[in-house]
Design goal:
Number of domains: 1
Radius of gyration: 14 Å
Number of helices: 3
Largest sheet: 5 strands, mixed
CATH topology: Transcription Regulator spoIIAA
Number of strands: 5
Strand order of the largest sheet: 1-2-3-4-5
Structural class: alpha/beta
CATH class: Alpha Beta
Order of helices and strands: EEHEHEHE
CATH superfamily: STAS domain
Low-confidence stretches: 6-12
Helix content: 25-40%
Shape: globular
Distance between the termini: 37 Å
């Protein structure tokens, strides 16, 4: 690992690919692949925030392809969570990668953000 604690260049991507799609009328899936950091967090935030403005809407964020998460990326996820508290939308993380899970646990954020191992394991409705 390099001195800035990022994985070696062969293990990471310097970009973030973000894709959003509707699963049904009340649920959207946002998939992020790459490094979620200072440079790329605004891209994820720009995708998440509009989806979180509708009460009752569920936004599932697949982080299985995120190879790096820094404090800015973490702040992006926390900001999304805070938006849900104001709007009544719901947010859940799907299959966070090992590096993401480590950062969430290290900061205690895993106690606030709901996380599920697979898309199919997310309960329907307000059960969570």
């Amino acid at each position: 690992m390099s001195a800035d604690r990022r994985p070696a260049s062969s293990d990471r991507q310097d970009t973030l690919q973000v894709h959003a799609r509707s699963l049904d009328a009340d649920r959207s899936l946002v998939t992020a692949v790459g490094a979620l950091d200072l440079q790329t967090a605004p891209q994820l935030a720009g995708t998440l925030q509009p989806l979180l403005l509708t009460a009752g809407h569920t936004v599932l964020v697949d982080l299985s392809g995120v190879v790096f998460l820094d404090s800015t990326g973490l702040t992006c996820l926390i900001a999304a969570y805070r938006t849900t508290r104001n709007t009544g939308a719901r947010l859940a993380l799907i299959a966070p990668s090992e590096r993401v899970r480590h950062m969430l646990a290290l900061t205690g954020t895993d106690q606030v953000l709901s996380s599920y191992p697979t898309l199919d394991s997310v309960p329907d409705g307000p059960a969570w």
